[in-house]
Known about the structure:
The structure is a single chain. This protein is mostly beta strands. The chain is built from 5 helices and 30 strands. A hairpin with a 2-residue loop joins strand 15 (206-207) and strand 16 (210-212). The model has no long low-confidence stretch (mean pLDDT 90).
Amino acid sequence: MSETTYVTFEESWDAASRTGGRALSAVEARARDGAGLPYAVVYRVPGREVPLGVRMVAWQAGILDSWAYDEHGRRTAEAELRLRSDEGRLLIRRLFVRRFPDARTAEFDVHCPRTAVELSDGGTARISHQPEGMRGASLEAEVAVAEEHLWTARPGFDDWPALPVEDTLPDWVAAELVPEAPGLRREPSRLLGTADFDEVFRPGTHIAGATVLESVPCGRVRVPSGVLAVACPQSWDEAPRITVAVPPGTYPLEAASVEVADRGHGPYEEVRAVRLQICDAPVATWEMALGPGDDTLRLRAGEAFGFGTDGAMGAFGDAGVWQDLLERAHRPGSPEADRLAGSAAGIHLDGGDLGADLAIFYTDGDGVHPVWVGRSASGEVVCVDVRTTC
Length: 390
């Protein structure tokens, strides 16, 4: 450790906001370590507001997490270790490293190169490397790992190494990422969709026992702030999890309706998707909308990020007045609630003097629903699509 580096102790740590809990003395931290209670060790240097790194320890829970920060407060590396108390050692379960091309690049910028390593106590590791960021292809490998790379001894309170986590990959990981490495394969971007999300809006198309009908207009949504929110209207989170930057304006919402050939009870109609149309350009690529902290290296095959719902609902609205829109929609007797209009997809709230609207749509169930953004060849947002039926 550098002579200028010093540590402080805190009761907890939030890695994203870089804030801790109650400050602890070294004596208190040592006592918590011995009792297995959570505490954080924060590594600092004089004159720098952002820490060099942080180690969060919770022996009772068997958890040891570490982060390294650059001078701009971005997490350059993360490590997750898990304690095997019966063996007195720690399994190195996950390593994660980011690279930032310049000082302006945000922590979760989709262009930022990143590498994740997930290890198992069975002696294997899954390596995923995105040299061009989330929009680029991923280099993948599953490899056998030597015992010494999987485990590390549980340190005593005075026996910690200098910094909690390195912002460089271990040599054995770097060796697996060279082009000639056996078993290294190239996988398409998990951020970009491979499906044809337009097909449920093309009348006459046949999709797995259903025929696409004409799409149904469901009103228009005003987005004066230029930030569209997509979330469950029954969630009272402080901010919507999924947002998409769009030009400020008013946009038509339409529902994709299909006729399902049910042999037992005859054909019936249902809504398969909803779409907010931002402009008339053709879609060149489909991109998964991400929420705070979402990183596609955490996704397995067939998985996707999205907004969660426990009420089988989603909604489009202006992120700038999202909470106001929800409050007015749920307040009986309000002028806005009295103007709720039904549509093929759900209901529409005219936000009145807010200058913004809330379009609520129903889904086929609870869970996580991905949000897909159609972009033109120049990268402009063409439409925002949610499949209501999985």
